[in-house]
Design brief:
38% helix; 5% strand; mainly alpha; two-stranded antiparallel ribbon; Haem_peroxidase; iron; Ccp1-like; single chain; 3-stranded antiparallel beta sheet; Peroxidase, domain 1; peroxidase; Peroxidase; globular; 2 domains
């Protein structure tokens, strides 16, 4: 009885002393994928109680406390109707739908060069800024000034002309949309036009500025990982944020080379093949890898996230949405006054179609579609698990352990005596904890669950009684 009482008190103490599994997952996700918690614009100076509802939500997204993806949608009234002019988001719904129609190839189900260019324009307009600059950032100056004449922007001239045409068409109807908002809307719709792309929440109300952005704020393709990390630190983007954002090269092509080669074998869709491609010793046939991207994939400061994202598309999508919202707010001083128009975003298509690879040869299976028993990263191996088994490959009974800095999946086995566990699409990653030696994965009710060491030990003692 004394032992039972002790165990009861031990469990009660553990319940009080330790956060919930959900809280641990949120903390682990923030630590692994979010990185920077530095707040931009007026979010850095306003107290939480002074924030508008939208300002508070943006703050929560940037701190990893809220999702940067949204599902809200609606059917807008006609563009020239009085109802549309009374709803700020109505015009953006018409803009976004028109952009999606121009960026998504309905015949192939993939995104096109206009989508690729729009994604790049959103980056180049926003990232031509750092926190020491008093101007620049996501202000529309890329198309309102002569910035397209700069070498790093020259390949976007055609896309820029189309975006200017759209802008002039809607402003001619009397809608006061800003070029700053249009470029960021275009970048988000461009991602969504690629099947599998996340539906990033949209915020509007950025002022435009025709002043050319500061020079030297964008990284050339020859930069090393350390140079890129140093450059983006001044933009409030962490090394993990850099890897998250550079993953957009999954849909890119190099227009400075005659053949316009892509950066992975499936440039028409949003997948994790880019990360897998850059972990290989050599580029696949028909694929062009930028020296800067290769450096990031090889650097010990950033390679682990390449490995993790290559097998965890759900985690990458979530991280990308949050990091791109951060990107889209660079240089914006009054974030608290923005309005949310996520409902204006197109629905998109999360179904990823098959697509001929860049070299025309059959594509090997992507790690993002590989089961846990087939995929092995350099940090962890997920062993096969069958319901009812009590022993594991490491010789232990009832649990198996992996290093705390390893990739950890929460998975449920399929039915059947010899079924293997498959990785959840939104794999859970636990980061290093100096106070812990391992993260146990315990079998309970036919599932594999992450448990705290203290709780797992107490449950094990209780099971012996």
């Amino acid at each position: 009885m004394k032992l039972l009482a002790f165990i009861g008190l031990y469990l009660a103490g553990a319940a009080v002393a330790f956060p919930s599994i959900k809280e641990l997952k949120v903390a682990a996700w923030r630590r692994q994928f979010l990185g920077s918690t530095e707040l931009p614009g007026d979010l850095a100076t306003l107290a939480p109680g002074e924030l508008s509802s939208v300002g508070a939500e943006i703050r929560a997204i940037l701190l990893g406390q809220s999702d940067g993806q949204g599902n809200e949608g609606y059917s807008p009234p006609a563009l020239d109707s009085a109802e549309c002019r009374q709803d700020e988001c109505c015009v953006w719904k018409h803009v976004a739908d028109e952009l999606y129609g121009l960026m998504h190839d309905a015949a192939t189900g993939t995104c096109n060069d206009f989508a690729r260019g729009a994604i790049r324009m959103g980056f180049h307009d926003a990232a031509a800024w750092d926190k020491f600059s008093s101007w620049g950032g996501a202000d529309g100056s890329l198309l309102l000034s002569d910035e397209l004449l700069r070498p790093e922007n020259a390949a976007m001239a055609g896309v820029g002309a189309k975006m200017k045409g759209l802008y002039e068409g809607y402003t001619a109807h009397g809608f006061g949309i800003s070029m700053a908002d249009l470029l960021q809307c275009g970048a988000k719709v461009g991602v969504l036009a690629c099947p599998g792309g996340p539906r990033i929440r949209m915020f509007v109300g950025r002022p435009s500025d025709a002043t050319p952005a500061p020079l030297g704020r964008l990284p050339p393709a020859t930069f090393t990982a350390d140079q890129i990390i140093d450059l983006f630190a001044d933009k409030m983007v962490s090394p993990s944020g850099i890897v998250t954002l550079i993953g957009a090269h999954t849909a890119s092509r190099n227009h400075n080379v005659t053949a316009n080669p892509p950066q992975d074998a499936t440039p028409g869709r949003w997948d994790t093949d880019y990360f897998s491609e850059h972990l290989r010793p050599n580029a696949s046939t028909g694929v062009f890898r930028f020296p800067s991207d290769v450096s990031l994939a090889q650097s010990p400061r950033t390679r682990p996230l390449f490995e993790q994202f290559s097998a965890a598309k759900g985690s990458w999508d979530k991280a990308y949405a949050a990091e791109y919202i951060r990107m889209s707010l660079m240089g914006v001083k009054s974030i608290n006054t923005l309005r949310e128009c996520t409902k204006a975003m197109p629905k998109g298509d999360k179904t990823v179609p098959s697509e001929p690879p860049a070299d025309g040869n059959p594509q090997s299976p992507s790690p993002s579609h590989t089961t846990a028993t087939e995929y092995q990263s350099s940090t962890a191996t997920i062993a096969s698990f069958s319901p009812g088994e009590s022993s594991y490959p490491d010789g232990s009974r009832g649990h198996t352990t992996v290093p705390v800095n390893a990739t950890v999946y929460e998975v449920k086995p399929t039915t059947g005596a010899n079924a293997n566990a498959s990785a959840n699409a939104n794999a859970t990653h636990e980061g290093p904890d100096p106070a812990a030696k391992s993260v146990p994965i315990t079998a309970e009710a036919g599932c594999i669950k992450i448990r705290l060491s203290a709780v797992a030990a107490a449950c094990f003692l209780a099971a012996l009684l």
